[in-house]
Amino acid sequence: MPQKENTANTTTDYSPDILGGNFEKQTLKLNDDYEGAAIATLVRSKCDRPSDKAVLYIHGFNDYFFQEELAKEFNNQDYHFYALDLRKYGRSYLQHQKLNNVRSLKEYDEEINLALKIIKQEGNNHVLLNGHSTGGLIITYYASRNPNSTLFHGLICNSPFYEYNLSFFERKFGIPLLSSIGKRFPKSLVPAGFSEMYGYSLHQDNYGEWNYSLIWKPNHIAKVNLGFIRAIHQAQINIQSNCIINMPILVLHSDKSIYVKKWTDKLRSADAVLNVEHIAEFANAIKGNVKVAEIKDGMHDLVLSKREVREQVYKTMFDWIKSQFKNEN
Question: Among candidates 226, 227, 202, 214, which has minimal Cα distance to 133?
Answer without folding.
Answer: 202
